[in-house]
Design brief:
The protein is mainly α and 281 residues long. It has 11 helices and no strands. Helix 2 packs parallel to helix 5 (110-132) and helix 9 packs parallel to helix 11. 36% of the residues are buried. The protein binds zinc ion.
């Protein structure tokens, strides 16, 4: 049990532990890719096992190794040679890297597992939003409730080892969830008054609430601010080069997710830069 609960921050990460983290992340990334394909299409998640969406041939275990199989097959189905969707290698690589970051930042323990769960959910949500322009309730609300549940775990046992935890206590988490939803609702309301239609979806508001629950009220201004800046950085060139119109919907999920990940890994440091003396997370 020690491996799951003991915080080993400050001690160098043993190589086997880092390798375990990356393998866990790769497997989780593979699962995230499957979720991102099946969830928005309303397909069953448990059956059948992995299959090629083009020729429906089941993918054998040895051809289903994260990243390695994609590289060996040169990105094509072994049976029908159709291209394997980019979401699979991208979610596997992202989750592998994020898992290593979780172990490195939070030490092998409860908070590393929790952070990895948050990362994998955000990667899945970003992929689904990019492809379909929606954020499924199963993921946004699941993230919200798990963030609130985590905020109830007493931190006294680990606080000595992790003084700069980005995970908030219950008050900060509940306030963050409410403020996250409210902030995006207000932005959408203003947009509606100005442009007579919705600018954001309900999924964006639930995702902001979930991020508020995971990172706390203090993190929200930065998450929303970073998401807005990243959205402008991507959207403005598209509009200026006339490849998109101002009225085209730009999925907000990936930007909110990126803001949430930034605050997860760099939150305490960022807060001390922007709000001098704010370390009482
Ligand atoms: Zn195929």
């Amino acid at each position: 049990m020690d491996f799951f609960w003991q915080q080993s921050l400050g001690e160098p990460l043993p190589a086997w532990s880092g390798a375990f983290a990356v393998l866990t992340g790769l497997a989780l990334g593979s699962f995230a890719g499957m979720l991102a394909y099946r969830l928005p299409r309303g397909l069953a998640l448990d059956r059948p096992g992995s299959y090629c969406p083009s020729c429906r041939t089941p993918i054998r275990f040895r051809r289903n190794v994260p990243l390695l199989s994609f590289a060996l097959l040169r990105g094509r189905c072994a049976h029908c040679s159709c291209r394997i969707h980019w979401r699979y290698p991208v979610s596997e690589a992202l989750c592998g890297l994020l898992a290593l970051a979780c172990w490195h930042v939070f030490g092998a323990g409860l908070y590393a597992w929790a952070a990895l769960l948050m990362c994998a959910t955000l990667v899945t949500l970003a992929l689904i939003d990019l492809e379909h322009g929606l954020l499924p309730d199963q993921l946004t609300l699941g993230l919200l409730w798990s963030g609130l549940a985590l905020s109830l775990v007493p931190k006294t046992a680990v606080a000595a080892h992790l003084p700069e935890l980005p995970f908030p206590g219950a008050r900060q988490a509940v306030a963050g969830a409410i403020a996250g939803y409210a902030a995006l609702w207000i932005i959408n309301f203003a947009w509606k008054v100005l442009r007579k239609r919705d600018g954001l979806g309900g999924g964006d508001m639930k995702l902001a609430a979930a991020l508020g629950a995971w990172t706390g009220l203090n993190s929200l201004p930065l998450i929303v601010g970073l998401a807005a800046i990243a959205g402008l950085a991507v959207g403005l060139p598209l509009v200026l080069s006339r490849r998109a119109a101002v009225s085209d919907p730009l999925p907000c999920g990936p930007f909110l997710a990126a803001g949430g990940l930034f605050m997860l890994f760099l939150g305490p440091q960022a807060a001390s830069v922007f709000v001098p003396g704010a370390s009482g997370w």
